[in-house]
Amino acid sequence: MALVAPLLELRGIGKSYGPVRALHGIDLAIGAREVIGLCGDNGAGKSTLIRILSGAERPSEGQLLAAGRPIEIRSPANALARGIATTYQDLALAARLPIVQNIFMGAELIRGPSLLGLLDHRRMRAEAATLLDRFGLGGIDLHRPVSDLSGGQRQAVAIARALRAKARVVIMDEPTAALGVAESRQVLDLIRRLRADGVTVLLVSHDMEDVMAVTTRVVILKKGHKAGEIETAGLSAARLGEMIMSGVVA
Amino acid sequence: MKPLIARYGTALAAVALFVVFAVTARNFLAVGNLIGIAKHVSPIAILGIGFALALIAAELDLSFANVCSLAAVATGTLVHRGHSPWLAAAAGLGVGIGFGLLNGLVVTRLKVPSLIATLAAAAIANGLAFMVTDGVSVVGRWPVAFTDLGRGEVLGIPALVWWMALVAAAALFWLKQTRGGFRLVCTGENVEAARLAGLPVQRLKVTGLVLSGAAAGLAAVLLTASLSSASATMAGDFLLTAIAAVMLGMTMFEPGHANIPGTMVGALTIGMLGNGLVLLGAPYYVQDVCLGFIIIGSVAVSASALTRAAFDV
Ligand SMILES: Nc1ncnc2c1ncn2[C@@H]1O[C@H](COP(=O)(O)OP(=O)(O)O)[C@@H](O)[C@H]1O
Ligand SMILES: [Mg+2]
Q: By the 8 A CB rule, do B203 and B84 touch?
């Protein structure tokens, strides 16, 4: 077996919020073209782990590596520059701003010399429509504020923003939790397509069926520790559920 | 129908007020009077636009009026001592931008809420203005090249009106058509979302406060030039008037958001109100009472962004 350094590697990552230890000694290697499921009970530390990878939080201990070299992910901007884009569980949208502005926040399209920073509204609208078309929202009025949208539509906007960043790693925290069946299927289809395009996806989900449907590997967290990891092939949703509850991965 | 009323209701009320004055106040409609209103309102609008830009970044700048006075005495003193008008104007702008930067750094680095930081800056600016002038106004016969900045006319329209239009157009263009303005709006709406989207939110907040300071500096230069004088208290009254213009503006066009067209209509409405009341023979203090009601009414209707800026740190 050829030894290729993983895209991203976590070594002994821990995080404390004051007296609360949210994560302890997490080791994890994230390779190219993987869809990794991140599972665990409420409070297991899934969101915390994701916020460390996305630069929203700094780890209290441990080491991050990219392609074998130690790195620090200092801020969300830094994570995006490293090709890591995230959709957050609380979506992190500006509710009163239009859809198009939410999608292009931080990745605006510019016309003319970039120094002038003149917005290319027409191209942003066109690209936003194309991105949202994947969720059957191609015709939506892009000037509507996000606060007008349903949960599924908001999720689509949040995912569209992450896709805009053209990342190599896309992290999704509970992307289907607020969605109906049809909308969930669209998100799962999108995850498969991302993988086919060579993107690695880290999926946090409570839905065993979703995890079974799209992941290649599942990492299970229990009370801030990594309980273990297992290939998805050959697993059943019921067994996965048991492992999450017991914290015994085998 | 309802969204239209929400968007344009108070703007229509301003038009109605205009009609009332046109009918009841003799000379209100005279071209000279209308141009006079626009001229009178110019510094208020420019200061208001600065305040609005800071508010769009969810920061309150309560220092702009005193910073404007300080910048005015800096400019006036330099002109008075025979320095180049350009140097004097640059100094006025520099004072404004410098205080904006100071406010921005205190808010983002020292984490002092802008409500407090800018009140403190206002006190500092006030003290410095009295120190520079010894409490005496600087008055003189200054070079026309300088006074024309505020007193000249182009195409029959006073320079002050052109400056106001220029500042409004530039601010509007920057907000709607450039990446910087786009990001300022995002930061003010949801600072955490903006941060997670990779925006340099601290720098953007500093930008909002620097722009407010720059507007105060520009207003100072124009006021000094148009009055041929400067004093340590000259812009003090603009604090409430300019804020009222912004608050009134937040009830229209983009309800709940500080916005440039609204600020312009707000400033012109307040100017028209003052002018109309005077023409109708109402005592001077009625204006102040009206101003108070405008602020309370506007905030009650839709200016919730003010409360967010004041109390979310
Ligand atoms: N900002 C925070 N401050 C204090 N404690 C936190 C914070 N965020 C998360 N925690 C705690 O860390 C633990 C892990 O939380 P989280 O990562 O959100 O879990 P999950 O996403 O798996 O439900 C929980 O005990 C939670 O209460
Ligand atoms: Mg979570």
A: no
Block means of pLDDT (10 residues each) for chain A, length 250 residues? 77 95 96 95 94 96 95 95 92 93 95 94 96 88 93 90 89 91 90 92 94 96 95 92 89
CB A206 within 8 Å of CB A41: no
For ligand 1, say whether the CB of A19 is within 6 Å of any of its atoms.
Answer: no
Provide the β-strand partners of residue A10. A28, A64
Nearest one of B173, B193, B190, B189 to B181, comparing CA atoms: B173
Nearest to A163 by CA among A236, A87, A99: A87
Single-letter amino acid, residue B285? Y
Interface test with A, best of B176, B179, B195, B196 (most A CBs within 10 A): B196
Domains of chain B plus CATH, in order, are 26-311 (1.10.3470)
Q: How far is A147 from chain B (nearest CA, A)?
A: 12
Q: What is the pTM of this model?
A: 0.91
Ligand 1 and A40: CB distance under 6 A: yes
Q: Residue B18: CA atoms inside 13 Å, Cβ hemisphere, count?
A: 16
Report CB contact under 8 Å: A76, B196: yes
ipTM reported for the complex, 2 dp: 0.89
